[in-house]
Amino acid sequence: MWEYTDKVKDHFFNPRNVGEIENPDGVGEVGSLACGDALKLTFKLDKNGRITDAKFKTFGCASAIATSSVLTEMIKGMTLEEAARVTNKDIADYLGGLPEQKMHCSVMGREALEAAIENYRTGGRKKHELEGRVVCTCFGVTEKEIERVIMDNDLTTVEQVTNYCKAGGGCGGCKGEIEKIIERIQGDRAKEQVMAMPIKGHKLTNIQKIQLIQQTINEQIRPALRADGGNIELIDVVGDKVIVAFRGMCAQCHLAEFTIKDVVEARLREFVSPELYVEEDKDSADQPHHHRG
Ligand code: FES
To answer: What is the reported pTM?
Structure first.
């Protein structure tokens, strides 16, 4: 048995707004009976452009019924701009959460809403179409959709992606590609976090500066060195001098010292402060690699 919140049960046993609006302003249909779930959402706008009524019809499980029901309640009174910003996470949160294996129902709700808004904006001409490249052919899930669920819900594993949008849940042939999409998005996120730190030029406190240097090393520099079998350690920060030690690579070679130090320095100047300069801590470097006297 799934663990459902009282709110999910309430909306399942007493679904609100079941049916179809006559002469709706927007219609969104997503899913297919072949996949086990289908949802049709219709809405009507008032003269101020706010959603005054919304109804749904679904063929799906308890969670699909509960999410569709709660979605129609949530969007009443919203403008289309507001409704377009509703994420599947908002819908699940509104229900007090959903079992992870059922999160795809909340995604279906958000997709139906998007499709209905698009239908309205294109004057009723456009039906929902898959946009972008299809990654999972078993369930017809596009790259864009996979990116969206990863970003909106901060997903980190292929299994989660399958729970959220079904991609990967059939033959499994697309799992490698889903993995790559997760890596790419999580990598971009790490970069954004570094960028969101206090911007260079602003006066950083010493602690902020050291944290930012450490973070830049961890996220921007170490992965690249690791790829070449090396590593870097932050030893100390004294004023604008950043003392580091290189490990597991030919750190003492003249050429290596020159290029690696330069790369590290350039990165730190870019992300932390243009005044920084890097010095290598010779004492703590790997002794076996010591070529120069
Ligand atoms: S292609 Fe995605 S599960 Fe088969």
So the answer is: 0.65
